[in-house]
Design brief:
238 residues, Glucose Permease (Domain IIA), eight-stranded antiparallel sheet, two-stranded antiparallel ribbon, 4 helices, 32% helix
Length: 238
């Protein structure tokens, strides 16, 4: 029977075994060191990424910035409104312009054919009687324009049986202007305000009580209900 050589089988005994174990340990240690280094680097990189992500701020969009500015302005307005002192009404003074003397004009710029009688009796050609002439007859062909002697309010417009188409104007301060013998188509109506020199109608020779006279208008002025000389009154105020 063939015998095995034991020296060939026990390769790991003695010095050879120690050397083999030592070599294996070195290889394992080297592999572990390499693995540790790679793992450490991986962990370090991961921690660096997390730190960057934590410290990096998100950039707001245009709409977010716009909304933030809007909210800021609203807060500022509310703060301003609360801190503003209430406004106190101040006294307003109204200056009144000094009164200006009213302009006066003649109702018709023509000849006076029958004057004011100053309360005296005169013979009426048309009525063939003696009576006072409480105004003036101013020559005027039919269609001649008649003006308001000064500003005022129209009191009445009527067609009188004796004086024809008549307009009475309140000129203020107790003064009334009486315009008789006008044509029917007048330019004013009751309660209308008229200006000095405004055309109120035209001559029409409609006064039946003075038809014997040449064409004219009859113009009279009352001062607080009393007849006065209209020509003198106008001249005094021109």
């Amino acid at each position: 029977m063939k015998k095995y050589n034991s020296s060939k089988i026990n390769l790991f005994k003695g010095k050879g075994f120690i050397i083999s174990v030592t070599a294996c340990a070195a290889v394992v240690a080297a592999a572990g060191f390499i693995t540790y280094n790679e793992t450490a680097k991986s962990l370090e990189n991961q921690l660096s990424i997390e730190r960057v992500s934590e410290t990096t701020q998100k950039v707001p969009s245009y709409e977010e910035i716009k909304e933030a500015n809007k909210e800021k302005k609203n807060v500022e307005k509310e703060t301003t409104a609360k801190t503003e002192e209430p406004k106190v009404a101040t006294e307003v003074k109204i200056s009144v312009a000094p009164s200006v003397k009213q302009k006066f004009v003649y109702p018709i710029a023509d000849e006076v054919i029958v004057p004011f009688s100053e309360g005296e009796l005169v013979k009426s050609k048309t009525l063939n009687c003696w009576k006072t002439h409480d105004g003036v007859d101013i020559k005027a062909e039919n269609g001649t324009q008649v003006a308001a002697v000064t500003s005022g309010r129209v009191v009445s417009v009527k067609d009188d049986a004796l004086w024809g188409v008549s307009i009475i104007i309140d000129h203020g301060n107790g003064i009334e202007g009486h315009y008789y013998g006008l044509a029917k188509n007048v330019n004013v109506k009751p309660d209308q305000m008229v200006a000095s020199g405004e055309i109120i109608g035209v001559a029409g020779n409609t006064a039946e009580c003075e038809t014997a006279e040449e064409p004219h208008i009859h113009f009279g002025v009352k001062n607080n209900g009393e007849w006065i000389n209209p020509i003198d009154y106008i001249r005094a105020n021109m």
